[in-house]
Amino acid sequence: MNIISIILLLWRIIILSCCYGAATTSAASAPIAKPNCTTHCGDIAIPYPFGIGPHKDCYLDEWFQIDCRHDNSTTSANYSRQAPFLKSVNLELLSIFPFNDYGVQSVQVKNPITFFSCEGKETRQPQNLTGSPFIYSRTDNIFIAVGCDLFARMRSDHGPVAGCGSICQNNADGDYDNCNEGNGCCQGTLLTYELTNLSIEIPSNSSTKSDPMGDCKYAFLVDHNWFANNLTFRDVKDMDSVPVVLDWMLNVHDYGERFREKPDLTDANQSTSLCTSNNDYNGTIMICVCPPGMEGNPYLLQPCQDIDECKGSSKCEVGDVCENLDGGYSCYSNLNGRRCTHFASDLACHFRTTSGRASKTVILAIISGLGSSVGVWLLLIGAWLVHKIVKIKKTIARKKMFFKRNGGLLLEQQLSSGEVNVDKIKLFNSKELEKATNNFSIDRILGQGGQGTVYKGMLADGRIVAVKKSKMVDTSKLSDFINEIVILSQINHRNVVQIMGCCLETEVPLLVYEFIPNGTLSQYIQGQIEEFTLTWEMRLQIATEVAGALSYLHGAASVPIYHRDIKSANILLDRKYRAKIADFGTSRSISIDQTHLTTCVHGTFGYLDPEYFQSSQFTEKSDVYSFGVVLVELLTGQKPISAVTWSQEKEYRSLATYFINSMQEDRLFNIVDARVLKEGSETEIQVVANLARRCLNLNGRNRPTMREVTSELEAVQMSRKPSISAEQNSEGVDFVEDDAVGHWDVESLSEVSASY
Question: What sections of the protein cross the membrane (predicted)?
Answer without folding.
Answer: 362-386
